[in-house]
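Reply to dn_fold:

You asked what the input looked like. This is it:
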Amino acid sequence: MKRLLFTAALLAAGSAPAFAHVGHGATESFAAGLAHPLSGLDHITVMVAVGLWAALKGGKALWAWPAAFVGVMLVGGAMGMSGSLAHVDLPFVEPAILASVVALGLLVALAVDLPVAVGAAIIGAFALFHGHAHGVEAGETIGGFEYMAGFAIATAALHAAGMSFALVAARNAMRSLVRMAGAACILIGAGLIGGVI
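and this is what came back:
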């Protein structure tokens, strides 16, 4: 576990900003919020990885880990909304988002088995940065709140897609496919960090 955290920290420290969130299209409607998580590999990969890891863990993690991500992401979104009394600037948002792709991929690829509360804390920490990035984009208007609602629903759907894949693979005695999907997440994250993707 210490190696995993050390690797994730190194990747975060050495990563360049992806600028995947600043000024990224329309952010004032429910439809834009639904579409946004499908617009970039960082979003898709992290959301699916949460679902994969939750399915590997099973039990309470099946609902607790996706719920932790969506809930804390919305808190981060509220913290980032421009003009809000609750606006808080978080440091290293883009590097943390990129590190989340690799870290969650590692957790899946290595089938790391953590207590549900610890997994929820890790997932929530990354979700805070994802939410903040999108809150900064969204205006503090009805349209901005609609955008965040759409984003939350699309995020939950991507979690469900990851869980569904992992549960079907496990049912067919192909758990190694889930771990291979985690390895693919690591490669995608490394490609994003290195600017190759």
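The longest helix spans residues 142-171.
Hope that clears it up.
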